[in-house]
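Lab meeting, item 3. Inverse folding demo.
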């Protein structure tokens, strides 16, 4: 009898784990748009871009070598990241806490803007 309860426990655990799984970048919507990355007064991107949004943030990439992401907090602020002056392969350079200003997220040293224009098919490659 104990073996049946152990098996039931394991199967239940597996079902719950599978049902609650979501990919880290489960994109909700994708758009063609226009984006700006400005850090410490230097504009690194001001061009057309691809914007991917999800429940708690978004990211954007353009034809330049730079890209950025914004992670939204429940309190209305956000944290920004970009791939840095060296155009690294991951957006790991933290830009600090950001606040919404029109289509942009800004602070004293950074400005990340993502103006959505037209929907597009999500490619999930980011």
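The presenter then showed the designed sequence:
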């Amino acid at each position: 009898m104990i073996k049946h309860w152990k098996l039931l426990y394991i199967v239940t655990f597996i079902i719950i784990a599978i049902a609650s799984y979501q990919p880290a970048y489960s994109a909700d919507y994708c758009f063609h748009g226009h984006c700006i990355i400005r850090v410490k007064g230097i504009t690194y991107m001001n061009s057309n871009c691809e914007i991917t949004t999800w429940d708690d943030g978004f990211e954007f990439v353009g034809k330049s070598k730079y890209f950025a992401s914004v992670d939204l907090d429940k309190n209305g602020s956000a944290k920004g990241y970009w791939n840095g002056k060296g155009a690294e392969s991951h957006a790991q350079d933290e830009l600090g806490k950001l606040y919404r200003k029109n289509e942009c997220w800004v602070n004293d040293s950074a400005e990340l803007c993502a103006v959505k224009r037209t929907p597009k098919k999500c490619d999930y490659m980011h």
